[in-house]
Amino acid sequence: MPGYAGYVPLNAEGVRNVTQSLRLRLRPLQVLILAVVFTVIGLPLLIGAERRAAVTDYISTHSGLGGFRPSVLHRPDHELSAHIPPPTGGVDPDEVPLTLEARLEWFVNRPVLEQWEAELPSRNQCPMYTYARNTYFFHTQDDRIEKWKQVSKDTIRRQRQKVLDYFRQLDREGQKMVWTPALEKNTPKDQRRGVIYTGGDSAKNLARLKLSLHMLRNVVNCALPVEVHHYEREMKDQAIRYELEHKYNVTLVQSKAVFTDGKPWQIKNRAFVDTKFTQFVYMDSDNLPLQDPEEHFDSVEFKQSGSVFWGDLNKDHPDNAIYRFLGRPCSDEHWPAESGQVVYDKSANEGLNLAVLHLSNHMMDDKDFYGNLAYGDKDTYRFSFYALGLDYQQAPRMFASAGGYQDRNGQDQKEFCGHSLMHWGLTPERYKFDQAYHPKPAFLHTILGKVRYGLNPEKVFSHFKRPREDFINDKRLVRTDYQYTGECFDITLKGPDGMPDSPNSYGDGQGTLIPEMKEGLDPKIWAGLHAMAKDFVELNIPGT
């Protein structure tokens, strides 16, 4: 190199000797670099998807890369599983210990507000004219809105104290308020999971129960043990008892619940507490299983929370005094439950899920206060989770309305009319990171179908209607109005269709779809449902 005195040319042999010596001197450094590279690449593969987010977060934070993630494959779990709703609404155990004593103390010391003090925060988070909250019959009947306003601070303090007194009474009676392994030590392992029904209060309800049991045992082929809880006055006919016990392999359990006039919701809550099952799937007697309920225990949603509830038609009214009782503003993060089906683990949340059931029982028993705040058991579960500061888990999809193109008397019509709620299932572990996955149908709750006379059995379950985008937390559900019209369960799209090629498109992709039922079901399940349609319809004929 001209002008540079230190430059001495090397021949080819010299170059080989120098590079070889460099390779020898650099080998430890190369080994270290290769080890780091293989660790970065291989560690996520070795530890599995469950922990990849933590590894990539650490690498990005400590490598000077900031928030950069080198690949979509290394996105955190909460992004890859965005199709699975997380359990939310609870208090961090680091903030309030996960013990019943600590949670009750936290609850009774929540803020106590008058209606006017709580109104603006609640109405901000639960806008009045969305999700049918201002038209839902429970909110508008019996002058409830005025009754909510009359709930005073003193009433709230008194009712919170009654919760404490209730648990103290349970303690004095020696009842277990928090689940422990001792509660199942005498229960064989194969009897710790099962299915619960309640029923038997009328011949028609008993017949519907048999249809559900037929679907359970003979169509979806569920082998789980089954309990049917009933009031003392029910199930007296020995022939019926024999049929249920031997044809459907169920155990009949006489409930400790006290029969009352009106809807017999108390027996459901009592069954949840008294059952021998630690983990159970509950179904109303008018609910038809469309998949084996045992699959729900292996779902992502159940494993991450220990309970799963399915959404209902509406959302909460912001002025409901229940939120002042709970010491929190109204929130839209959860839909009220449609509790014709529940998946539950009494041992979850360090055993506090059993305390949730006890508190729900207390709410059901104190009708004078909670009767105007909660529409039966379906609301008391969620409010009990809130009261104890525990996360609440929703199923991932809003229900579809199942029915067909006939009116309540079986006459053909152009408009779709749904009489049953078709609830979608949960997410198997193998689909945890598959954002395209949509659960299959799991339950068909025939709420209106059971009181429709003269339906054509060939068309009774012909179609179903659903939002195109039906993820439970999707903000676009505000445009698909769920409502009971008096004749049907309808899902009405507000505004134009959101697909790009639609006239005057809203551009958000939302809309409604009406597929044929046989397209949405496994062929075997569809055949089983279609085969029992005649029996289902004939149950509704007056005088039968």
From TrEMBL:
InterPro entries: Alpha_mannosyltransferase (IPR022751), Nucleotide-diphossugar_trans (IPR029044). The keyword Transmembrane helix applies. GO terms for biological process: mannan biosynthetic process. The chain crosses the membrane at residues 31-49. GO terms for cellular component: Golgi membrane. It is a single-pass type II membrane protein. It holds the Pfam family Mannosyl_trans3. Keywords: Golgi apparatus, Membrane, Signal-anchor, Transferase, Transmembrane, Transmembrane helix. GO terms for molecular function: alpha-1,2-mannosyltransferase activity. It is found in: Golgi apparatus membrane. Belongs to the MNN1/MNT family. PANTHER family: ALPHA-1,2-MANNOSYLTRANSFERASE MNN2. This is Alpha-1,2-mannosyltransferase MNN22. It comes from Vanrija pseudolonga.
